[in-house]
Amino acid sequence: MNTFDCVIVGAGPAGLSAGLTLGRARRYIAVMDNGTNRNRVTQQSHGYLTRDGITPQAFKEAGVNELKNYPSVSYFHTTVTGIRKEFGGERMIVRTMDDETFYTEKVILATGVQEEFPFPSVREFYGKSLFSCPYCDGWEMKDQPLIIIADKEEHTMHMARLIYNWSSDLIVATNGVELSKDCAQELKERKIIIKTEPIKSLNGHNGYLEKIEFKTGETISRSGGFVVPSFYRPNQFAKHLGCEIDEDGTVATDGAGRTTSKNVYIAGETEKSASSSLIISAADGQKAAVSVNTDITLERF
């Protein structure tokens, strides 16, 4: 019977970090992942100490290989299709698309989030010349002619102020949204061009941006830039398991990965339904794992 102390759903930095910590704690762990991690489209991952510039796939493979050093950890390449509590809530049943059933005392949700963009063609360039995180990719884009695509004023201003540190050759495109007089003046003072016309298309080759065409017929040349996506959870596990979710979409926790639903823990981007860096997500996974191990210890001692 597939029975574990904890099932970790998702093998991004949060899930892998949690698996490593619990494996070293000699807990019987199943880590399940279907390869849809959000950063798989990027060429390099940055900002993770000792791994700066590593490809997302190499980072993941290194993490999975480290788990193999601990015999109590099992890794499954599969999609979790359902999780439900049974036996008075003291045990959970996890089912996968392979029609396998797993039993576990604890679950860590670490499936991350996915992006939604203002228009579909962004995906053609996302991860190669259009990015969402200046801390991850700003260095590589420094001093280039860039565009910022954001359709909310607060996002536009935040990104413009931040990215100006890497490149002052900026065009802000709001895709049809007018900026307030004060915000527009602030940008103009720094010679940042504002384009409020709706975008018709992004043009380039092999994922590398060359031009932006507006619905007015005007085109401008840009070599890359940053876009502000919205984020969503790819599943409803937290909701279905009875976790309290705040109005802003954040899953309520005790600050150490415990949700309001007994035996359900959460880590990484899944908790806030927002983007995060690799190193912060890994730290979140380690915290959640310590909570799981602490709770198991106190329940069994």
TrEMBL record:
Residues 4-270 form the FAD/NAD(P)-binding domain. This is Thioredoxin reductase. Keywords: Flavoprotein, Oxidoreductase. GO terms for molecular function: oxidoreductase activity. It comes from the Bacteria. It comes from Bacillus swezeyi. Its cofactor is FAD. Homodimer. InterPro entries: FAD/NAD-bd_sf, FAD/NAD-binding_dom, Ferredoxin-NADP_redctase_2.
